[in-house]
Amino acid sequence: MKRHLVLENGEIFEGTAFGSLENSIGEVVFNTGMTGYQEILSDPSYCGQIVTFTYPLIGNYGINRDDFETITPFVKGLIVKELCQLPSNFRSAYTLDEYLKLKNIPGLAGIDTRKLTRLIRQHGALKGMFTGVDENPEDVVKKLKETVLPTDQVSQVSTSKAYPSPGRGKRIVLADFGMKHGILRELNKRNCDVIVVPYNTTADEILQLKPDGIMLSNGPGDPEDVPEAVEMIQGILGKVPMFGICLGHQLFALACGATTEKMKFGHRGSNHPVKELSTGKVALTAQNHGYTVSSIENTPLEITHTALNDGTIEGLKHKELPAFTVQYHPEASPGPEDANHLFDQFIEMIETTEKEGVV
């Protein structure tokens, strides 16, 4: 069945429908990863977005039971150049088409994804809508321009109740702003006693759990739309060692007086080079964010990492307190694991503060 992708600037792409036939509206973004479409599809940070894959062939190893980053995907749709209907992989349980139908997620195949990506790079992330070919494009464009995308993505993807992931090691409270399971897996590997809490848990409620450290997870949307999380971080800073990832990095920056801004088209992919300023070492990183920390002027923060492609801030640490954050994803999934050692660095920071009695 033929379907259209209509963008708010009037551009129309005609392709073949797969997955659900829902007329979905979302922010159209692109991801440059060559593999990992299952993890990308299930990453809660893509809540409310239609994801375009720049790699031309998607679905060739199917969907398996193990590589999900959340149980329920929150993407609004997928766009691919060529959809593989006959995957070849011993772990494959579904085709991509079958899985999208199960989860009621629309897809569009057979369009010029290079052209679409160039449009996004030129104009920035655009609102888009999947429609039938018989719908009036002018009416769709008008609807897109009138549509205000939701700002409550974090509340949609966060857990509603606290739950444990028991271990015998350090007790880590993991604030869930849209947590990828990869973060939890890395903490479990280190035998941490993890308690996952909702995004709106207060500082007092977290401190009552007697944590050794607090992890601020990734998540979707604008960090300024989560003021309760900023307040929580301010109430915990200096009392418990802290490590933040992606949205957690941005929320930490806001809590310390920094500013954030929306990027033109964001960083989404598995091959972004990041430089550690203290050592000069460069790591290839997995990234997925549409906002960035724009300024740390007059704050107690120090820049630790920068992106080599555009110079944006990729890591921060507090000059006086045991707290550091990164904009990229050290847990990978998908992508390189060059920065996986940051989880060990977090545990070492906790042990150091306990020995020195800093916190």
TrEMBL record:
Its EC number is 6.3.5.5. L-glutamine binds at S45, G219, G221, L247, Q250, N288, G290, Y291. Residues 1-131 form the Carbamoyl-phosphate synthase small subunit N-terminal domain. Gene3D superfamilies: 3.40.50.880, Carbamoyl-phosphate synthase small subunit, N-terminal domain. PROSITE patterns: GATASE_TYPE_1. It holds the Pfam family CPSase_sm_chain. The keyword Ligase applies. It comes from the Bacteria. Keywords: Amino-acid biosynthesis, Arginine biosynthesis, ATP-binding, Glutamine amidotransferase, Ligase, Nucleotide-binding, Pyrimidine biosynthesis. The active site is at C246 (nucleophile), H329, E331. Residues 1-170 are annotated as: CPSase. One of its GO terms (molecular function) is ATP binding. SMART domains: CPSase_sm_chain. Pathway: Pyrimidine metabolism; UMP biosynthesis via de novo pathway; (S)-dihydroorotate from bicarbonate: step 1/3; Amino-acid biosynthesis; L-arginine biosynthesis; carbamoyl phosphate from bicarbonate: step 1/1. InterPro entries: Anth_synth/Amidotransfase, CarbamoylP_synth_ssu, CarbamoylP_synth_ssu_N, CarbP_synth_ssu_N_sf, Class_I_gatase-like, CPSase_GATase1, GATASE. It is an enzyme of class 6 (ligase). It catalyses: hydrogencarbonate + L-glutamine + 2 ATP + H2O = carbamoyl phosphate + L-glutamate + 2 ADP + phosphate + 2 H(+); L-glutamine + H2O = L-glutamate + NH4(+). Belongs to the CarA family. NCBIfam families: CPSaseIIsmall, PRK12838.1. Composed of two chains; the small (or glutamine) chain promotes the hydrolysis of glutamine to ammonia, which is used by the large (or ammonia) chain to synthesize carbamoyl phosphate. Tetramer of heterodimers (alpha,beta)4. Small subunit of the glutamine-dependent carbamoyl phosphate synthetase (CPSase). CPSase catalyzes the formation of carbamoyl phosphate from the ammonia moiety of glutamine, carbonate, and phosphate donated by ATP, constituting the first step of 2 biosynthetic pathways, one leading to arginine and/or urea and the other to pyrimidine nucleotides. The small subunit (glutamine amidotransferase) binds and cleaves glutamine to supply the large subunit with the substrate ammonia. HAMAP family: CPSase_S_chain. This is Carbamoyl phosphate synthase small chain. The gene is carA.
